[in-house]
Amino acid sequence: MDLNHIATLFDQRRERHTLPQALYTEPYSFDFDMAAVFAESWLMVGLECELPKTGSYVSMMVGKWPVVITRDKEGTIRAFHNSCRHRGSMICAVGNGTSPKLVCPYHRWTYDLDGSLFAAGRMDSDFDKAEHGLKPVAIECISGTIFICLSETPPPIEDFREKLMQYAAPHNLKDAKLAYESVLVENANWKLVMENGRECYHCSTGHPELAKTFPVGMSKHFDSGHDARVIAFEETMDALGLPQTPVEGHYWQIARFALNEGCVSISGDGQHLSKKLMCEANEGDIGSMRWAVDPHCFVHCTADHVFMFSAMPVGPNETHVTGKWYVHKDAVEGVDYDVEKLIDLWTKTNLEDKALAENNQVGVNSLGYTPGPYSQEAEMLAQRFTDYYCDKSRAYIEAHGKQ
After folding, report:
1. How far is CA 317 from the centre of its chain?
2. pLDDT tens digits, one per residue of 216-266
3. CB contact at 8 A, 259 and 287
4. Burial class (CB in 10 A: 0-12, 13-18, 19+), 143
5. Which CATH number covers residue 141?
6. Which of 118, 149, 180 is a domain's end point?
7. Of 104, 297, 315, 333, whose CB has the highest number of CB atoms within 10 Å?
C-alpha cells in the first residue's frame, strides 16, 4: 500500500466536494480504508439483547476480519478476534448462537466464554494454555448497545458514551429483542453507500413512501427553522425530560426530531408498528431519536421500535448493508406486531438506496467523473461524513510515515 500515492489523492480533494475517483474505485483504496478507518474506529455491533444469556455469541465480519462477541458465565459481554490460537481457523461461523464453550472446528481447541483456552489435545508437555487464549477486542456496552474497536489504542469514546446514555435512557434498549435481521449486497463502494445514507437531498423523489412520515426536507441535524409545530414538539420533549437538542463529536451525532404531522413512528402509515412500546412517554408520540456513528451506521429509535443500519465494506465496489429491527422484549409476534409490516418501509428504502448507490458507482467509474460540490443546505451531513473520512485518513498517513 503506497501511502505517498494515497496521500496525493487526499491533497487533491477540494473543500466541500466529493472525493477523487480512485478513492471510490481502486482496490488499494479498499485496503487503505480497512487499515486507516475500520481498524481504527468504534463500530456498532447491535444491542445487548442479541446476547440474552450465558453462552450467547454473535459472530460477524469487519471487512475481511472475523470477530466474535460472547456473554460469559458472569454475564459480562466480551469481544475477541475469531481466530484460533492454534493455526488460525475461524472458530464461530458468522451468525448468532449459543454454546457453553467455543470450539474450533479444525482441531477442537476449546475456549471458555472469557476467551481463555480450556482444552487443546495432543500438545507437548511444556505447552502453556494460559499463553494461548483468544486475543481480545476492545468493547464498550452503552445503555444496551454494543460497540467494538479493533485498534489496540481505540479513539476516545467518553463524550459519546455520556451523550448516548442520556439520549437513549428513555428508550429502555436493554428491554429490547431482535425481531428481524437482513443483509443486502450492494455493488458500490462503502463511501458512496454512506454518503447516500447521510443525506435526504434525494429522499422526496427517491423514497416516496419514507417521505410520508420522515421529514425529508430538513437540513443537517433535521433542522426545521422556525416551524411552529416542530418548536412545539421540542418544547414538549423538554418538558418530558426527553433530550432533543442536536449534539455531535468528531465521529458521531445524536438528535431527536419531530416526524411529519400526525405521525408517531417511521412506518408506512405513520402509526406504531408494535402495540408494546419501548417508550410510553407522551403516549408514544416522541418523534425519532437518531444517532449516527462514522464510519458505518445510523440508528432510529421511535417509541415502538428501533431500526439499525450498518454498511460494511467487503471489496472496493461491494458493501454489505445489515438492517436490524428491534421491539420490546415482551412484544408477541402476531399479536403485538407483524414482522412483514415491521420491516416493510426500511426494506423498501434500503432497496431504493441500493439502486441509487449502484447507479452512483457506475457514474463514478466514468472517464468523465469529476468531484462535485455538496449542497450546503441539503447535504451537510454527507459532507461531514466525507470530511471525517479525510481527517481520519490523513491522521493515519501521518502516523504511519508518509515519506
Report:
1. 19
2. 987 766 666 678 999 999 999 999 999 999 999 999 999 999 999 999 999
3. yes
4. middle
5. 2.102.10.10
6. 149
7. 297
